[in-house]
Fold this protein.
Amino acid sequence: MFEKLKEIFRDKSRDNLFKNLLNIGIDCELAKRGANEEKLFNPWHRRSLGIININSDYPIKYINIIKQDGGKNNPPRWWYFFAIPSYEVIPKNDSIEVKSIRKKSIPVFGKVESIIWEPNANSNDLAERFALDDDINMLSNSLGNIKVQSLHDNFSGFSIELEFKIRNRYLNFNQWEILNRIANMCLEL
């Protein structure tokens, strides 16, 4: 009885994204819960909903879905981290971070008028490449702000972070291809 009740109220964001990826033709599988990858990108005040392993030749190898529960004055939030492993170790002082900022006609509710890519000191070239790519700008326009960063310590590579304030967001195949184009740009650095 308790297990049925627990299943009813369980957050199914990972399951929904998994089905979405299968529907657009991506070979993937749900990883067993408790994997080490769940600890990546996961501060103490958030929790991982689990990992989706990508079994194809794309540079994105897995997706970690993180949730921060809502409180009295704030709604729940979801982060989707697309992990891109790299064999090259990037020193922390050469780390990259590029964030998209969507400029709207009216704050919060307005239409997105432009996308600005904000780099750290080491990622000006990457930000410029993103800014010149209309598909990447349209991806940020449709999905929300995107953050691309290099990772160190336990994981060597890059991550693409998407943050959602609604539970169910779906990707189409074109958006998946653009995310992998971003991943390839990172691996070319």
The chain has five helices and eight strands. The longest helix spans residues 173-187. The chain has a mean pLDDT of 88.
